[in-house]
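Researcher: We're teaching a course module on how sequence relates to structure. For the next exercise, students receive a sequence and then see the predicted structure as tokens, so they can try to spot secondary structure elements on their own. Here is the exercise chain.
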Amino acid sequence: MSIQTENIQKLVERRAKARLGGGEKRIEAQHAKGKMTARERIALLLDEGSFEEYDMFVQHRCTNFGMDKQHYDGDGVVTGCGTIDGRLVYVFAQDFTVSGGSLSKTMSEKICKVMDMAVRAGAPVIGLNDSGGARIQEGIDSLAGFGEIFERNILASGVVPQISGIFGPCAGGAVYSPALTDFTLMVKNTSYMYLTGPAVVKSVTGETVDHESLGGASVHATRSGVAHFAADDEKTGIAMIKELLSYIPQNNREEAPVVPTDDPVSRTDDALNSIIPDNPNKAYDMYGVIRSIVDDGRFFEVHKEFAKNIIVGFAHMNGRSVGVVANQPAVLAGVLDINASRKAARFVRFCDAFNIPLVTLVDVPGFLCGTQQEYGAIITNGAKLLYAYGEATVPKVTVSLRKSYGGAHIVMSCKQLRGDVNYAWPSANIAVMGADGAVNVLYAKDIKADPEHAGEIFAEKKKEYDDLFSNPYQAAQKGYIDDIIEPRNTRFRVIRALEQLSGKQQDIPAKKHDNLPL
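Model: And here is the predicted structure for the students to work with:
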């Protein structure tokens, strides 16, 4: 055997060993937990044969606590690039079979390297997290590694899309990297995120709680809002990441891919003409409106289980990606509260950063009242959504369906927040408040002074108020509404508006950065 042949053979053998990570026994243990390995996840995520791996032979440099005798090629993370549906992405996947996926300085260097490459290439970066946290044996070096990753997350924000998949533990300082990315997906029953684990919580607060109840996928998808998606299993989770990517561009200088459709632009839906109930206090399902107007009825929802009184997500209209924000009358009457405001504001800012037009469907009776909301800073949180819409320079098309009252009317992409095209259905009520509340304020003395005829006075004044405000015509007369449209034509009118706005250019005053109300 020649020296060259021998060297090639050694390379093949070492590559094969590196691909086993921590070894076959640890791989079996990973599978026994219902979890894939890092390489299996990457293989499922990327187009077949497209993965280009970097730094396969990197090893840690720690000599503390016997670590000089524990060396694995790759050092607990698989990094590289590949394609998804032919589009370039960069990826890192932590390998739990090597030191529990704990972060070393060299692991952080590998991760930072692909993040830097993603920014230079203008391609999304996807992190598949499965780690026990910082590698304790490395002390401050491990913490420095986290800091380096966080800084990359910050610098890449708004430049390239960043997606985090949580496929196992993610605890302590490690949680901040996913929190800094654009979207976080968790897997039910096998992943969790928290700053301090159950044992620490028990010792500090006396609370007894398990991993799932403290930081599982269901908790973060429904209560905290940390997770945008909660998948039933890893295969479903990876499929969701791939679908998400189909709606977003490679970077902030490009537009999302156009998806051909046979759904006619001129398609109408007579059902929309009767979807609004005669009783203004009766609910209806906003999902019916969304699916009626988007291409092929397909809507990819974000934050589906969190703050259900507002709906956000992606769709295509005439093949082009749009971000949809819609109040949901079927939940809390579609009222805006702290969580709904935060949820929608974050989504609006993502769409604006990545050139995705916004379609807003309005049916909002106002902001949720009460001490809990006021003490929780509904003022500041509501201002986040107001700020997000007012700051956004992408095309913005708004349709007011029914209620659009008070401050909530302003917040939901009104004309004064640089809404480009604002439509209303004939059923729209655009006013400071609803008729009942307005009459009680405006005519309280008259009603109190004549209790015998209070009901008649109330009914008369309510009709007077309804005639004036319980329709969109006054707003249209003042130019705050560009047109009043027949509901059945909503798809066509919105698409035509978006096409007219496709070349929109809008500058903002020069500044170092804004000061979003946080």
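Model: If you want an answer key for the exercise: The longest helix spans residues 105-121. The mean pLDDT is 92.
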